[in-house]
Every structure is written in structure tokens, then in C-alpha cells.
TrEMBL record:
Residues 3-114 form the Response regulatory domain. It holds the Pfam family LytTR. The keyword Ribonucleoprotein does not apply. The keyword Phosphoprotein applies. Residues 144-215 form the HTH LytTR-type domain. This is Response regulator transcription factor. It comes from Fibrella forsythiae. The modification 4-aspartylphosphate is found at residue 54.
Length: 248
């Protein structure tokens, strides 16, 4: 098992990382902390194989912590700021995860750890380091930023009917209510499984299983008419036709 420590000054980010780590069979979560000084002390005791590290933190930045303990363990940076990527790679990090982090992107990142923890003489990975596809399931929910600074709302995929982009925000129509969140439509789509979620217009994402009917260039969900954009029309119709029963 690869022992993991996650460090971030935001609790919601730690909750997400902890959930992702616990879904991967060859990873073991040994600790999460919002305190970089505590993380430094923990790393110095050699109890950690890989450090998931945020960059912008009080007291000690992620890059400072990386320079202090990066030689003791492998490091995967997690940050909302792409401008730090070069600094990360100059310090030999394994990967650079840009928030919001999807599970699929997280899984691709941790796969890069395997060569460092498999004996060079071994022909195959030990059973504890194999990733059984039946065990690594995609999450069925995501966290969306709420209406206050540190508020994040868990949203189940099954409750999402459609999403409308509103410049720097999205309006998420749920089964029982509607949620406005600070996020781009593109970033949200990257965290949703496709299918059932597909983009039908530059301003709309829909859940296939929530579509009530399609009439020409319009999709009807919850008595709301959503346009199918010309750019997306062929792909949308191809997906819809693939779900029609074959005749003859």
C-alpha cells in the first residue's frame, strides 16, 4: 500500500481528496491536515510515501514545504492556480492537479506513482498495487461552491436534471431545488460522467435520463425548453439514436 498524506488549508478540499484516496485499492490514507507545519513533522518521521500538497497556505507555503520534505516522499501538487506548474515540475513533483479535481484526473495522476513502488525486477505489480476496475468506481456525487466563502454543497449526480451556464456561474436544476454556484460550465462538465451528462449547447448540460422529449432543435426537461446548439447537434442526435430500440 502507498501511504498518503493530504495537506490543504481548506477542509472541503481535504474531504474530497480523502474520499478519492479511499476509493483506490493501492492507496492508504494515513492523515489529512490543514497545518503545513504538522505535515512537515509527519513527513520527517518517514511515515508517508506520497504527499498531496496544496500550494497557497498560511505559515508555510506548499512550495516551501515541498523543498523541505520533497526528498523524503513523492509529491503531487493540488492547486487552483496554474501559474505554479513550472515551479512544481522544477522540484520533480509527480503531477500537478488543477482544482477542481475530477476523480478520473486524480486516478490518472496516482497511476504515475506505481513505477516508484514496484520492484524493478518484478515483472508484474504486486496484488496490492493492482487497480481492479470493479473496485475503482466513479464517484456518484460532486461538491459545488455555495453562496458563502467556505461553503460547499454535496450534489448527487442522480439529482441533476440540467445545468445552465451564466458567465462565471452555473445554475444547477436539481430534483427539489436549484443551486447557483461559482464555476464554469466547462469545469463542471469535466467532473460529470459522460454519459449520462452531455453538453447540448454552449450554455447547457443535460442528464440523458431526465430528458422527457426531443422535438427538432429543442429538448424538454421539467417543462423547460432547452435549445440544441448547431455545434452539438450531430453528437447529441448520435447519442440519442444509440439509445433507440433497433427495428426490423
Amino acid at each position: 500500500m502507498i501511504r498518503c498524506l493530504a495537506v490543504d488549508d481548506e477542509e472541503y478540499a481535504l474531504t474530497l481528496l480523502a474520499d478519492y484516496i479511499q476509493q483506490v485499492p493501492f492507496l492508504k490514507l494515513v492523515k489529512t491536515t490543514t497545518n503545513p507545519l504538522e505535515a512537515l513533522r509527519f513527513c520527517q518521521t518517514d511515515q508517508v510515501d506520497v504527499l498531496f500538497l496544496d500550494i497557497q497556505m498560511p505559515e508555510l507555503t506548499g512550495l516551501q514545504l515541498l523543498r523541505l520534505c520533497g526528498s523524503r516522499c513523492k509529491v503531487i501538487l493540488t492547486t487552483a492556480y496554474s501559474e505554479y506548474a513550472l515551479d512544481g515540475y522544477e522540484n520533480d513533483v509527480i503531477d500537478y492537479l488543477l482544482k477542481p479535481i475530477s476523480f478520473e484526473r486524480f486516478l490518472r495522476s496516482v497511476q504515475k506513482l506505481l513505477p516508484f513502488f514496484i520492484s524493478a525486477e518484478a515483472t508484474h505489480a504486486p496484488p496490492s498495487l493492482v487497480v481492479p476496475s470493479t473496485l475503482v468506481a466513479e464517484p456518484t456525487y460532486l461538491f459545488l461552491k455555495g453562496d458563502t466563502k467556505n461553503k460547499y454543497v454535496r450534489v448527487n449526480h442522480a439529482d441533476i436534471h440540467f445545468v445552465e451556464g451564466l458567465k462565471n456561474y452555473v445554475s444547477v436544476q436539481l430534483t427539489t431545488d436549484r443551486l447557483i454556484s461559482y464555476c464554469s460550465l466547462k469545469d463542471l462538465l469535466s467532473q460529470l460522467p459522460c454519459p449520462p451528462f452531455i453538453r447540448i449547447h454552449r450554455s447547457y448540460i443535460v442528464a440523458l435520463d431526465k430528458i422527457e422529449s426531443i422535438d427538432g432543435h429543442l429538448i424538454y426537461i421539467r417543462n423547460k425548453r432547452l435549445p440544441i446548439g448547431e455545434t452539438y447537434r450531430d453528437e447529441v442526435l448520435q447519442i440519442i439514436r444509440a439509445r433507440q430500440p433497433h427495428t426490423g
